[in-house]
Amino acid sequence: MKIGYNAITKPSFLLVHPELPALISCKPLKICNPVLGIPRSHEKFIGFVTKSQYSTFERTSKMDTVRVGRKGRGSSSSLYSRPSLLEMRNERIENRDRVYEFLRSIGIVPDELDGLELPVTVEVMRERVDFLHNLGLTIEDINNYPLVLGCSVKKNMIPVLDYLGKLGVRKSTFTDFLRRYPQVLHASVVVDLAPVVKYLQGMDIKPNDIPRVLERYPEVLGFKLEGTMSTSVAYLVGIGVARREIGGVLTRYPKILGMRVGRVIKPFVEYLETLGIPRLAVARLIERRPQILGFGLEERVKPNVESLLEFHVEEASLASAVAQYPEILGLDLKSKLHSQQSLLKSVIDLDPEEFGGVVEKMPQVVSLSKTPLIKHVDFLKNCGFSLQQLRKMIVGCPQLLALNLDIMRLGFDFFQTEMGRPLDDLVDFAAFFTYGLESTIKPRHKMVTKRGLKCSLAWMLNCSDEKFKQRMDYDTIDLEEMDPEPSFDMNTLMEPRSDESGSDYDSDDDYV
Fold first, then answer.
1. Could you count the other beta carbons within 10 Å of the beta carbon of residue 491?
2. Is residue 59 part of a domain?
3. What 8-state DSSP symbol labels residue 393?
4. Could you give the C-alpha distances from 29 to 26, 41, 307, 331, in angstroms and in order?
5. In angstroms, rounded to a whole number, what is the distance separating the alpha carbons of residues 317 and 320?
6. Which residues fall in a coiled-coil region (predicted)?
7. For the chain, what is the domain count?
8. Is 54 within a domain?
9. Residue 211: which of 168, 182, 269 has the closest Cα?
10. What is the DSSP string of 146-206?
11. Could you give the angle at which helices 279-288 and 266-274 cross, rounded to 10 degrees?
């Protein structure tokens, strides 16, 4: 007899009761009475329910374990123990406060350091300060640029200083170097410094001169290669500065690399042109004295030109005075002019108008020291010249105040003993003292004496060697051939160079 499904009383209750440990395993399902005749499909269903119940029980047990762990989070041994963001922030603030307190204790004002990454301990910060002290920097230097405290000794300072030392920058100059450009300690040797050095070498600055350039102008290490540096050099070549001279110009005055063409260089060049100095002559002056570009046009140059006019230098002579002594534009000129005018008034009774003429012929007179000047005047007095004769000689040839006294003595002794001429000849041609005794005076005097010619000192000396040989063939002396007294010739600045290359920059219209 078979029993139907209806005869089974709540089999699900017995199979899934949670308190029956036997149901945790699947084994009880295997001892079911086959007499019941439960279909296989129903057996599979029962097994599925039982496994699900087991999984639920396992998850419940694990969750209870997690809850226990969470209750113990405050314990230091817990895997889940981590400082909160608030705790980390407070710790950073406390560390920075301690570092700030240390800096204030040694006189450093840390107000500008907010937001800058600093060492977390006082010990590391003390190491940085001590390293900067060893480089010669004072507390005042650090306060002038406190951001230097953000540079790591090992990662920033030592690599940069090692690189500069390998280039040839002298350690004795490191202190001044860092005072002028402390930002170099933030730089990357590979990314920032090495490319600038390579660019400078490309400007024909000799490798041995690179360290001197950096010492004179450390700020160049912060410039962009294709910015101000390239435009300033291009402009100079454009006005006539010889390409082969660029390296020497930049070596002597590297600040040119940081000058704006439109604001500094071009206005300076154009102003000198208004004084009567041709552009090519200005280029030659820059080749010889590149530092003149650093004279402030409005602050120094223009006021000095006004001072020259005030002290009776003729406007037409300004170009000559500046071309002879371009440094005159950068001096504290008015005080020097006043001092020298007073000095010459006291020793040779020179009038103000005559003083202007002296400056025109030898503008360097404004820089002569008092003692040497008086020695030269005393020498001429001892030669027998009167005060009036002295004044005439110095107005005609101010170089007498600056020549080598030993050479002047030799020249005067030869004039007296061998030439036998009256002193008036020297008064009329005081430039006699400017000619070489062995190279010019003696050989020409010998030839004139041999020919039996009677001539002035000017006719004998004030001409080229070729011209003098021609004169020696004359039967008579033609006074109309007398050359003017020696004076500065602007054209000497613009003589063509046989080795000068042409410029690709023929116009400066683009520089504004």
1. 8
2. yes
3. H
4. 6, 13, 122, 115
5. 5
6. none
7. 1
8. yes
9. 168
10. GGGGGS-IIIIIHHHHHHHHHHT--GGGHHHHHHH-GGGGGS-IIIIIHHHHHHHHHTT--
11. 120
